[in-house]
Write a structure and sequence with these properties.
With 228 residues, the protein is an alpha+beta fold. The protein has a single domain, classed as Pseudouridine synthase (2-Layer Sandwich). 23% of the residues lie in helices and 32% in strands. The chain contains 6 helices and 12 strands.
């Protein structure tokens, strides 16, 4: 994977937007992670991560190129001024098909988390969904907070764990999937008075790349743009 260039979708003097491949660690562990690879690829002395994606998750990531912009982005994330939409696929029947998922995130076993019914410092996610085909549903997820594993735990809490999620879905079933089906699909924000919007369809995973799913993604974009 290290030999394949990371797709750079946008770059200016303040930040870059990249398309993170599924299955790549964000930070370096046994091998170079996403941040190190992008820094090396762009011949930069330093880049500033301002949010992150789990290893299984693909899609849009913002990286600041200077300290000032990094601080601006961090403040914007805290104030919920950066709109993010993720997509996910589950093959389980959900308790509900749209709405809000709210609750405190509590530590569970082996680094996992679970959603509580309490609301002291809750994870908050808004979602809607549409049927791809019987037994397979596409979810559009808008996290309003930024907790570890937030969307993966949210999906499990509505009885619809994400396909290929070896932590929160059935581990045996996850082994038979070609990837974890969570993707950062849309980023929208205004920086220094200038509006930015980035959209990137997933390009890996049979469930994501099937024609029925791609058509639903395109249809959702039309309705999302008309509501903004």
């Amino acid at each position: 994977m290290n030999k394949t260039p990371i797709p750079i979708l946008f770059q200016n003097q303040d930040f870059v937007v990249i398309d993170k491949p599924a299955g790549l660690n964000f930070h370096s562990e046994e091998s170079p992670g996403l941040v190190a690879l992008v820094q090396q690829q762009l011949h930069l002395d330093k880049i500033y991560p301002v949010h992150r994606l789990d290893k299984m998750t693909s899609g849009l990531i913002l990286l600041a190129l200077n300290k000032k912009t990094a601080q601006q982005f961090q403040s914007m994330f805290e104030q919920r001024q950066i709109e993010k939409t993720y997509i996910a696929i589950s093959d389980q029947k959900p308790k509900k098909k749209q709405g809000w998922i709210k609750g405190d995130m509590l530590p569970a076993r082996r680094g996992s988390w679970k959603l509580a019914k309490t609301l002291h410092n809750p994870a908050i996610s808004q979602f809607e969904s549409v049927l791809i085909q019987p037994g397979e549903r596409l979810y559009f997820l808008k996290p309003k907070t930024g907790k570890t594993h937030q969307l993966r735990v949210a999906m499990k809490s509505i009885s619809a764990p994400i396909c290929g999620d070896d932590r929160y879905a059935d581990a045996n079933a996850a082994k038979h999937e070609d990837r974890g089906y969570l993707h950062a699909y849309l980023l929208r924000f205004t920086l220094n008075g200038k509006p930015f919007e980035f959209i990137k369809k997933p390009n890996s995973g049979k469930r994501f790349t099937q024609q029925a799913c791609q058509e639903l993604l395109q249809a959702w974009l039309q309705t999302d743009k008309s509501s903004n």
